[in-house]
Specification:
7% strand; Rossmann fold; 24 helices; eight-stranded mixed beta sheet; two-stranded antiparallel sheet; alpha/beta; globular; AB_hydrolase_fold
């Protein structure tokens, strides 16, 4: 492929018929050569991230329109490097909980006119995202500051075993042996972790979220109807909000570190009756931390997304003040913690860790309940059909995000505590360290119970899958009348269709898991409250029984956590290398990376904030300079990008667009999970705005589906179902068995070529149907 951009011939206003066929591939990232079915391809615009390509013979098509009468000018938009599953980005999967919280913002029901409830819903999601950041930083502090610096370095038995890397922080080592100085050194690890997240967030919005949008005036209402939210001018430009969220979450994380730096020395100063100046400093630092924390919460509640206009202000003074102020506060806390206190010895867990962790669990539970109530209220006021989980989807997503990080954090802390504490004091049965907060240990004990729930759901799904296979065998044969019956072939087709139906049951499965997690979290908090100690360290009676049960489950949970981390990373690697795999993690990753950051700034970058402006600019400027029309041919996730770009066009340009989608998740996934943005009303408005629309789908496709399915209300005739496979058995025309393609290779179906010819003919009304042309394989 030629890589040197070759400028196209000058485009000019003319009265000729010229149709640009905009090809948009799915998340698979097909090469331009494959998309255009030609090895000689030239890049005409763009860069190494996203670019426009044409065949070498079509580069100067605008200068000779007479050669393209009755056929289109194919041009592909290649956005493969933007796709969320590149092999080099496996570690992005560790930020999946942040992405789930961000998804919750977009999952609300479409209750128009109820601004206060919608605003409350958005504020709750942003607060949940803030609590998730604090929880992650608390876990990092528990690892380095509590277990290593405070507990292990303060006990001789633990230090002797870890002297090769912890000897200089030993309580007997001299100057660095004082607890406050050990805490100061250990605080560098969570601060570095916060800095890494801050840097990743800044890199993403500098590279993607800062793209220039097409200038246009979009009124809130056109033709007497409220326009879809995705047509708002500032929808794909969230740089101001992201900058504020970035600085606020950074400040909240640093405040958490500062709290743990100050809590222990200030508690000692009050108990030991130290110098009054130190006591005053401790109070002043505590007040400053509280003020900065309240400022972060106020900022989260005060500022949301601005979509009615392109808001280019960045609040540089505020964001710099918050970020710099939080960093300066941590720097002020360091000398206070490092002040010489000769008689101070560390004992037990680090003060403040258990309070912060348990308090966060309670706050997060309350947020989930409040989100469930707000979602239910909005759902009852919404008229859109086929909304998944009856408005509880945001609460489900937030619960799953909390559980993922809480379980991983509890497992990591408990694992390190077991490793550091496996050597007891000489002559005693006690461990070398006190261990993590009881709530964390009880959470590890809940993991086996959660695994049983997951296995039960998998078993129910497997039974349902087999039932669907048996039921669909009759339909598999009925779709191919006249062909001889083959039991094995019918079973394979039925199995493919049954597996495709599993996608529709995934939200209910996730809802069941979220409910189980919420109940188990409440049970673990109750166990920690009743016993007042980790499992196995309880008294008699009921606390003793609960403790022994929790101790047994904790051992199993520790191994399951290690196994779960390996499985999670392996799933992320597989989904990264094969993003079109139809696994649950791959589907969630593709959905989450589409939406801009609205709640959590550390979520994975949104490829749409680069792709949508690119497509909008190209279609709008090409139509304006040539006076021609556009045929958008989009596959799978590319159809979602195409729809978002068409909504950003002016009404006059939208009427020049013909839309051909196939394997599209517009309604099946986006319309049901995000009904406020891709609901039935919005999709009807899109059909009304474009010149024509055709959507192709298969029963074996686990991602795509009809845009206006039966049971969703009356809709226009847009959907065309294709048979998959093309033929049931062997024949003279097809001597070899035809494959079951699912979401791939739609253009290999002859029915695709027929629909493509009809769409092309509609773009040339004065010249009739064009001659048959090659098949475009860019699925």
């Amino acid at each position: 492929m030629a890589t040197t951009p070759r400028p196209s011939a000058p485009e000019r206003h003319a009265s000729f018929d010229l149709v640009l066929e905009r090809l948009v591939h799915g998340i698979e990232g097909a090469t331009p050569e494959r998309t255009l079915a030609d090895p000689r391809v030239v890049q005409i615009a763009g860069d190494e991230t996203a670019a426009l390509h044409r065949r070498a013979a079509d580069v100067d098509a605008e200068s000779r329109p007479q050669d393209y009468q009755g056929r289109t000018v194919p041009e592909t938009y290649s956005w493969g490097p933007l796709a969320p599953g590149r092999p080099g980005r496996v570690l992005w999967f560790l930020l999946l909980p942040f992405m789930l919280v961000n998804l919750a913002h977009w999952m609300r029901p479409p209750a128009r006119g109820h601004r206060r409830t919608i605003r409350l819903h958005a504020v709750l999601v942003r607060l949940a995202a803030l609590s998730l950041t604090v929880m992650v930083v608390t876990a990092a502090c528990a690892l380095s500051m509590d277990l290593v610096a405070w507990q292990c370095a303060g006990r001789a038995a633990c230090t002797r075993e870890q002297s090769f890397w912890l000897g200089f922080l030993s309580a007997e080592s001299g100057w660095w042996g004082q607890p406050g100085r050990r805490l100061a050194v250990a605080s560098l690890l969570p601060c570095a972790f916060i800095g890494l997240l801050w840097r990743l967030s800044r890199q993403t919005w500098n590279a993607y979220e800062s793209q220039d949008l097409l200038p246009h005036q979009s009124a809130p209402e056109e033709d007497g109807e409220l326009r879809p939210a995705l047509s708002m001018p500032g929808f794909w430009y969230g740089r101001r909000l992201l900058a504020r969220l970035n600085s606020t979450h950074t400040a909240a994380g640093l405040c958490t570190v500062a709290v743990l730096l100050v809590a222990a020395p200030s508690s000692y100063d009050r108990q030991a009756g130290g110098p009054a100046a130190l006591d005053v400093c401790g109070w002043l630092l505590s007040v400053l931390i509280a003020c900065l924390g309240l400022t972060a919460v106020w900022t989260i509640c005060r500022r949301g997304r601005s979509e009615n206009r392109i808001d280019r202000r960045l609040d540089r003074a505020f964001t710099r003040a918050v970020s710099s102020g939080s960093a300066a506060l941590v720097v002020l806390c360091l000398p206070y913690a490092m002040w010489s206190r000769p008689g101070w010895r560390s004992a037990g867990p680090l003060p403040g860790t258990e309070v912060i962790y348990s308090g966060l669990l309670l706050v997060q539970g309350a947020m989930v309940v409040a989100l469930a109530v707000a979602g239910t209220v909005l759902f009852r006021r919404a008229s859109a059909p086929r909304i998944l989980l009856r408005g509880l989807a945001p609460a489900t997503a937030v619960t799953l995000a909390f559980s993922l990080y809480n379980m991983m954090a509890a497992g990591a802390v408990q694992g390190l505590a077991d490793w550091l504490g496996n050597h007891g004091e000489p002559g005693t049965t006690r461990g070398a360290i006190a261990g993590p907060p009881p709530a964390m240990t009880w959470q590890v004990s809940a993991i086996p119970v959660l695994l049983i729930v997951l296995l039960a759901l998998v078993g129910v799904t497997h039974i349902q899958l087999r039932r669907n296979e048996r039921r669909l065998r009759v339909f598999a044969q009925g779709d191919y009348p006249g062909d001889s019956y083959d039991m094995l072939r019918a079973r394979r087709i039925a199995a493919a269709r049954a597996r495709a139906c599993i996608t529709d049951s995934i939200p209910m499965m996730l809802s069941a898991v979220a409910t189980a997690v919420l109940l188990l979290s409440a049970a673990t908090l109750a166990g920690a409250f009743v016993t007042g100690a980790p499992p196995g360290d309880s008294g008699t009676g009921l606390p003793q029984f609960l403790g022994e049960l929790g101790q047994a489950l904790k051992g199993i949970g520790s191994w399951l956590i290690a196994l779960g981390v390996v499985v999670f990373l392996n799933s992320g690697r597989r989904a990264s290398r094969a993003p079109t795999s139809h696994g649950l993690l791959g589907i969630v990753w593709g959905l989450g990376a589409f939406w801009p950051c609205a709640a959590h700034p550390f979520a994975r970058l949104s490829y749409s904030e680069r792709a949508v402006p690119d497509l909008t600019w190209r279609m709008s400027t090409w139509c304006r300079t040539t006076g021609g029309r556009v045929l958008v041919s989009a596959h799978s996730q590319g159809s979602v990008l195409a729809a978002a770009a068409i909504w950003q066009l002016s009404p006059s340009v939208r009427r020049r667009v013909r839309l051909l989608t196939y394997g599209s998740p517009l309604e099946r996934l986006y319309g049901r999970l995000f009904p406020a943005f891709f609901g039935h009303r919005e999709l009807r408005a899109l059909h009304r705005d474009v010149h024509s629309w055709r959507n192709l789908w298969r029963a074996t496709d686990p991602i795509g589906g009809p845009v206006f399915p039966a049971g969703a209300g009356e809709g226009p005739e847009v959907d065309v179902q294709l048979r998959d496979p093309i033929a049931f058995g062997r024949s003279e025309e097809r001597p070899l068995p035809t494959p079951i393609r699912g979401n791939a290779a739609y253009s290999a179906d002859p029915a695709f070529a027929q629909e493509h010819q009809r769409m092309t003919a509609s773009a040339f009304p004065a010249r009739g149907a064009p001659a048959p042309r090659r098949s475009l394989d860019h699925a």
